[in-house]
Structure formats: C-alpha cells, structure tokens
C-alpha cells in the first residue's frame, strides 16, 4: 500500500473574505444573545442588500456570534461603502437599545484563493480572516478607542490595494496579529 494518497485537484477561485464578530457575545444571557443575533444579522443583511452583496447560503456561514462571507464583489466597495454603512448601522442600532444589548462589531477583510465544497469555503484567506478578528491587539485598540465598529485588513490584501488609494493612510493603524499559527502585521481603522 502506497503512503501517498491521491488527492483530487481543487478548483480554486480568487475571492474576498469578510469575517464579522460581535465582541463579548458569550457574556450575554440567552435572551440577550438571541436579540443581538437577530439584530446583527438584520443589520448585515440590510447593508449587504443595499450594496448588492450576495448572501446565498454557500456564500456565507453563520458563526453564532458572527458571520464569514465570501464574495466576488469589488474590493473598492468592501473597503469603503460596506464598512462605512455597516459602522453607521451599528451606531444607529446602539443609540436605540439599552446598554446590555449594545453591539461592538469587528470586521476582518482578506482575499485570495478559496475552494467551495459541499460545506462552504476553505482556504488560507478564510482562516486568516478568522485569526485577524481574534487578534488581541485589534480588540485592545477597539476598547481603547471605545469603538463600536472597526475593520482589520490583512497585510497581503493591504499591500495589493494600497497603490489604488482606496484607504486613507492617515486613519490606518498597524496591529500585531499573533493568533494560533498566524503571526503577522495587519492594518485597522474605524470607519
């Protein structure tokens, strides 16, 4: 018996990965979690629909207190309109609810080759986006600034798009990411 197993070639596609997560979700009681989930998904779905971002079941996965979205929409929308509108929607929501169910939403953005199977997408940018969300420095900066919403972008994607001047360099801040096997720098901003 051969020690080399045959692995079928995959069909990778270059797509953008958006990871979203509600901070301190587990600290809420079950009723609070249900309320925040409903409202968070409503906010995300509303902003995505306004921008014609596809939320088909195979394009996103529910993470309980967050969402992983894989899309082919334009990067300019994902670093400008989407975070601006999402941040505005989170702030509007927080103005209307009691402090116990206010939301602090984190967004991570990456891009690269991913593969779709019958359970969803897999690939380096999906994993990296999840690690960016959990970066202690990113979370600490959000607490320090009292931010209700912030975005972190991988160095790889940042370096690919920086010459297009889509991001305001004056608003970007470097943050260290050391989560599991991911050790890198990233950029964050508060839209």
From TrEMBL:
InterPro entries: Nucleotide_cyclase. It comes from the Bacteria. This is Guanylate cyclase domain-containing protein. It comes from Actinomadura hallensis.
């Amino acid at each position: 018996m051969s020690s080399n197993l045959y692995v079928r070639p995959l069909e990778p596609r270059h797509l953008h990965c958006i990871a979203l997560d509600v901070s301190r979700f587990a600290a809420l009681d079950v009723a609070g979690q249900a309320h925040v989930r409903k409202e968070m998904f409503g906010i995300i779905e509303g902003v995505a629909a306004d921008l014609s971002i596809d939320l088909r079941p195979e394009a996103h996965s529910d993470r309980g207190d967050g969402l992983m979205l894989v899309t082919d929409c334009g990067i300019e929308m994902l670093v400008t309109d989407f975070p601006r509108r999402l941040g505005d929607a989170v702030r509007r929501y927080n103005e209307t609810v009691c402090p116990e169910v206010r939301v602090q939403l984190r967004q991570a953005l990456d891009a690269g080759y991913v593969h779709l199977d019958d359970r969803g997408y897999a690939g380096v940018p999906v994993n990296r986006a999840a690690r960016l969300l959990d970066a202690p420095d990113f979370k600490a900066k959000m607490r320090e600034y009292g931010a209700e919403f912030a975005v972190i972008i991988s160095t790889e994607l940042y370096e690919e798009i920086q010459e297009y001047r889509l991001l305001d360099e004056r608003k970007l801040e470097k943050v260290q990411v050391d989560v599991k096997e991911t050790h890198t720098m990233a950029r964050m901003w508060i839209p």
